[in-house]
Design goal:
Elements (H helix, E strand, L loop, with lengths): L5 E5 L8 E6 L7 E5 L4 E4 L7 E2 L7 H4 L3 E8 L2 E7 L2 E5 L7 E2 L10 E8 L2 E6 L4 E4 L7 E2 L5 H8 L14 E6 L6 E5 L4 E5 L7 E4 L6 E6 L8 E5 L3 E5 L13 E3 L9 E6 L6 E5 L3 E5 L7 E2 L10 E6 L5 E5 L4 E6 L1
């Protein structure tokens, strides 16, 4: 094998549904869970080499297939899952047993993100931009944002964020910075993005400096302080500067990166911790690699065509990562 070469190896998984998210328990690094469409739940006890189908015992199999489980998060043995139609599950024992957490029918929007924060503690974000925390296992939730994004935009529409007047009231693609607890989210039409940081009363909208709509957005190297990466329709990729003041609603400048996507949109960008290595997944089922923190990119020859889209690339640590896709495709990262 070539020194420093990296391989993505496909892991056999007994499903052809889309896999959306993966998380490992904080108590055993080899014990993890994946969730996906049509009620897909899978468990590993060997670090992700093999996966066994599971089901959440308080959902009947007829019920379960109707759910799309979109996010899973663990802190220690405490785990949380959210899905659509609006659903939340909580485990205190690493996933041996799961409790369904009732969601208030008056909840503004549907849950789109959940983060395990500790014993009986979690943070949830909804599609309307509400951020809630619980410290008692989901029995009570405290609102961290004073108003919905809709209300913020109605109040600040004159602030001149292009596209804000067309806001449909919902956000997609919500990413959380674990260090600061800050979030970045895309408006559902992709015409602008928003940020929120703990202590702020409302989300701050930011116009995009490209005429093309935003397809995906995230933190460089997983941290708000390192700036943002943004992919736009038609295969564009751009990075902002480090150390941006997200508290201002001014348009944040982005610098385009050279990546020969052939017009395919970039679905996700992920950074290997403690290194200059980054990976991008493209529509059409290819992976691109950067060895200079995202400045330049080359198509990964080892994997070439996967045959399905990879929607998420998730680094668990420096040597463990998974690429999650459609048709039950799961790739495991193997540094050679």
């Amino acid at each position: 094998a070539v020194k420093g070469a990296v391989q993505w190896v496909q892991v056999p998984v007994e499903t052809d549904n889309t896999i959306y998210d993966i998380a490992f328990t904080g108590t055993d690094p080899k014990h993890g869970w994946m969730v996906g469409s049509r009620g897909t739940v899978l468990e590993t006890v060997d670090g992700g080499s093999s996966w066994q189908p599971r089901s959440f015992q308080n959902l009947s199999p007829e019920d379960e297939i109707n759910y799309r489980f979109e996010k899973i998060s663990f802190k220690g043995n405490e785990g949380w899952v959210i899905g659509k139609p609006a659903l939340m599950l909580h485990t205190k024992d690493g996933g041996k047993s799961w409790e369904r957490i009732p969601l208030n029918p008056k909840l503004p929007g549907d849950p789109v993100n959940v983060t395990a924060l500790g014993i009986d503690s979690a943070e949830m974000v909804t599609s309307a931009g509400a951020v809630y925390t619980t410290t008692n296992g989901g029995r009570n939730w405290k609102a961290e944002v004073k108003e919905t994004i809709d209300a913020t935009l109605n109040r600040t529409i004159s602030s001149g964020v292009s596209g804000a007047s067309y806001f449909t009231g919902s956000i997609i693609e919500v990413n959380r910075d674990p260090a600061t607890g800050g979030y970045v989210a895309i408006s559902s039409r992709g015409n602008f993005f928003l940020t929120w940081q703990p202590g702020q009363d409302f989300w701050i909208p930011h116009g995009r400096d490209s005429s093309r709509r935003i397809q995906a957005l995230g933190f460089v190297s997983g941290s708000m302080n390192n700036g943002l990466w943004m992919s736009t329709r038609g295969g564009g990729l751009a990075f902002s500067q480090k150390g941006i003041d997200f508290a201002t609603a001014e348009t944040i400048p982005f610098e385009k990166r050279d990546i020969k996507t052939g017009g395919y949109g970039i679905l996700d960008v992920s950074f290997r911790p403690g290194s200059q290595e980054a990976w991008a997944s493209l529509g059409g089922g290819t992976l691109f690699k950067s060895e200079d923190a995202g400045k330049t990119w080359a198509k990964d020859k080892i994997i070439d065509k996967i045959g399905t889209n990879v929607y998420k690339i998730i680094f668990i640590d420096e040597t463990t990562a998974f690429a999650l896709g459609g048709n039950g495709v799961v790739l495991r990262y193997q540094p050679v």
